[in-house]
Amino acid sequence: MLNNGIGPPSFYTSIAQLTAWMKAPKDESGPKNLDTMLKAQSWNTADFMEWGFYYDQTWIPTTFWPSGYWEAGFTFWINTDAGVIIASRAYAPKEPLVPASRPTPTPRPITRWSDFTFVVYNEACHGDLTCLRRLTWLIRSDVRNPSAIAMAIKALPDFEDRYEHWPGTNFGMDTDVGKSLLGTPNGYGLGWLLANHIVEFGVKSVDSVAVFGNDGVELCFAFHVVDGDVDTPMVLDGEGN
Q1: What is the pLDDT of residues 25-70, one digit of tens each?
Q2: Torsion region of 236: left, alpha or beta (phi above 0 gives left; psi -120 to 50 gives alpha)
Q3: What is the largest CA-CA distance in the chain?
Q4: Rounded mean pLDDT of 69-79?
Q5: Residue 10 in contact with residue 2, Cβ under 8 Å?
Q6: For a surface tag, which of 139, 226, 227, 231 has the fewest beta carbons within 10 Å of its beta carbon?
């Protein structure tokens, strides 16, 4: 069982359980619009495996809920040899307000990005601790969250409607800007992931974040993960994502 802070526990902890609930195609197509970064890091596109999850449920539209449609989805590209997770599509399946006039959606076994990420990365590593502890990079590609975008623009004093290509602008976690970017909705899920799975990942910390634009000029964050220098596990209170 995965712990979600003040949120409900996630009882589904395997790919098999998830695929019984969500569509989960896997293929070997590489990350989209990240060729510049991949080449600079000497990462081979063919070494990334895509993991995509998608769920939707349709019901009879009502005045209260005219779309009659609900969805959730997550997309990852993972290279376990290099310890890289690239996360793109991320629409968390949180319970919406629902009218009594339509059926309640199928209960979601996992509600948070960090839980999906752990289950997928653990599957990609076949549960091997040596593999899991190689985690070095989390790339959040094509960031769409408004507050994350606003924080990125605020962090870039010379921003002129375009983000610089990789390596972009780097901020250490010893700076207020670095901490603020890690605290955005596209960053704090990583902190929760590492703090909630110390047994699997070992003690890790985030030492920097790069803000850059991919080859399609969409905003990306690259969080660099390093081995921690503390012996006492972190205790993280709060919702986490």
Answers
A1: 555 456 878 999 999 999 998 899 888 776 655 544 444 444 544 4
A2: beta
A3: 55
A4: 75
A5: yes
A6: 231
Q: What is the mean pLDDT of residues 200-207?
A: 96
pTM of the model: 0.80
Q: At what angle do helices 113-124 and 188-196 cross, to 10 degrees?
A: 60
Q: Give the span between the Cα atoms of 51 and 69, in whole angstroms.
A: 23
| CA-based nearest residue to 36, from 156, 201, 159, 214 | 214
pLDDT confidence of residue 104: 53
Report the distance separating Cα 137 and Cα 204, nearest Å: 12
Token pair recorded at residue 141: 């590609």
Report which of 94, 88, 135, 139 is spatially closest to residue 112, judged by C-alpha positions. Answer: 94
Whether the ω angle into residue 9 lies within 30 degrees of 0, i.e. cis, is no
> Where do the DSSP E strands lie in the chain?
26-27, 49-58, 69-79, 84-91, 137-140, 169-172, 204-213, 219-227
Neighbours of 203 (CB within 10 A): 16
Exposure string for 2-16, b = 16+ CB within 10 A, e = fewer: bebbeeeebebbebe
